[in-house]
Design goal:
With 429 residues, this protein is an alpha+beta fold. 34% of the residues lie in helices and 25% in strands. It is built from 15 helices and 21 strands. Strands 1, 2, 6, 7, 8, 9 and 21 form a seven-stranded mixed sheet that branches. α1 (16-28) packs parallel to α6 (117-130) and α1 packs parallel to α15. The longest helix is centred in the last third of the chain and has 20 residues, at 409-428. The radius of gyration is 26 Å and the shape is elongated. The chain starts with a strand and ends with a helix.
């Protein structure tokens, strides 16, 4: 074996958490010898593709408790750290390095350039300025605990370090190494994904978006046995096991958008054993009840008796969606409101407030793939993000069993964890 190259601090993982941690350690501990190890040819690959190539840096939520509420796993553990470093601190950190951020209507925050390369350039220029070594194409084959620190066997060289930071995200090989060190790994499952739905009511509506309320229903076995679910009274009465509301986007393969992604995050552990086959109930009017909807439909009928139902979309719905709802309710195209029976009005109200759809699978965001799973949170000190099992072993980012809904929250976890690690490591240095 070749002689180990000494480094004070080695960070495994050349992503958002790894770079942020390294830069903050270097600024707090001038002279510290720091090296980032990245298994791939490129660094910061998730940063590059995040937000459609714009990089959703964080979210405009400025209270720790409200920010923590966006993490299905890790909310309790992050509450304390968010009091030390959260959204406002992230904005200041980037702006002090020449990167201005902007807030969009939905609260997501991006660089004003709308280009993820701005964030990448910030990180890479800072590592160069601070003398942080970045080793690409360098996979860690084995992590060994030594009396005086750590030894890492890599595909390039053998390294020894006093302090080791693991910021590898969802990396099964590193999780195996951590298991060998005694850590428990919560098995990963997909956390952010869209719903595959093959249904005539939405087949020709890709690109249509509207606010909606969506529920995952109990008794998912019914999804296998019921072929026609639009107006089935048995299915209408099924209780909700998960609920979310917000923008819903109809796609070529089914449904997406923040409302669906929230459900996928909060239901990650529930939906995986079902093999992503279950029923959802959609209220296209968000929070309008069937009864109130029926009343409003009757008022429209009384006001416009001679007008065809297809002439104007009601309730502010996209016209194509309104048309498909009427078609699904078997409403004749030229039939006027006056000809619609009370039973037909109720059927339209049910379709608007409680449409049942059968989900047959999921689709994930390839490069932006997020999982629930990782290092068991009870094995980590969250004042420092240090391992409870091994001194001088730290974790940052998605290597931990922490994940969030879409909107910049996963990156905020990386920034907060990286900052906390850097503070703890700098005190030791």
């Amino acid at each position: 074996m070749t002689k180990a190259i000494d480094k004070d601090i080695v960070i495994i993982g050349g992503g958002a958490a790894g770079f942020f941690t390294a830069i903050n350690i270097a600024e707090n501990s001038p002279g510290a010898r720091i090296r980032i190890l990245e298994r791939g040819a490129e660094v910061l690959t998730k940063v590059k593709v995040s937000g459609g190539g714009r990089c959703n840096v964080t979210h405009a939520e400025f209270l720790p408790k409200e920010l923590a509420a966006n993490y299905p796993r890790g909310a309790k553990e992050l509450l304390g750290p968010f009091h030390k470093f959260m959204t406002g601190d992230t904005i200041e950190w980037f702006e002090s390095r020449g990167v201005a951020l902007k807030i969009e209507e939905d609260g997501r925050m991006f660089p004003v350039t709308d280009n993820s390369q701005t964030i990448i350039d910030c990180f890479t220029s800072e590592t160069e300025r601070l003398g942080i070594a970045v080793k690409r194409n360098c996979s860690v084959k084995r992590i060994l605990k030594k009396d005086d620190g750590w030894e890492l066997e890599t595909t390039k060289e053998t390294l020894s370090a006093q302090i080791l930071v693991v910021a590898t995200g969802s990396n099964p090989k590193i999780w195996q190494q951590l298991t060998a060190l005694g850590h428990t790994i919560v098995p990963p499952v997909a956390s952010l994904f869209t719903f595959n739905i093959n249904d005539a009511r939405i087949d020709d509506l890709p690109g249509v978006a509207t606010n909606a309320s969506v529920e995952v229903l109990g008794s998912p076995s019914d999804a296998e046995s019921e072929e026609h679910v639009l107006n089935n009274k048995k299915l209408q009465k099924l209780k909700s096991v998960l609920h979310a509301q917000g923008p819903l986007l109809i796609t070529h393969w089914g449904m997406s958008g923040p409302a669906i992604l929230k459900l996928s995050a909060w239901g990650a552990r529930i939906l995986a054993p079902l093999q992503y086959k279950f029923l959802i109930r959609v209220n296209w009017l968000t929070d309008v009840s069937e009864e109130n909807c029926s009343t409003r439909l009757q008022e429209i009928k009384d006001t416009f008796p001679k007008q065809s139902l297809y002439t104007h979309a009601q309730f502010g719905l996209p016209k194509r969606l309104w048309r498909n709802i009427l078609i699904g309710c078997e409403i004749v195209k030229d039939e006027p409101w006056a000809a619609i029976s009370r039973k037909q009005l109720r059927r339209i109200a049910v379709a608007l407030t409680a449409s049942i759809f059968k989900v047959t699978g999921k689709s994930t965001f390839k490069e932006e793939f997020v999982t629930a799973g990782g290092v068991e949170l009870t094995e980590v000190h969250f004042k420092t993000f240090e391992s409870k099992l091994h001194p001088n072993l730290y974790f940052a980012g998605e290597v931990l069993n922490i994940d969030a809904i879409t909107g910049g929250f996963n990156f905020q976890n990386a920034w907060t964890g990286g900052f906390m690690v850097a503070q703890a490591v700098s005190e030791k240095c």
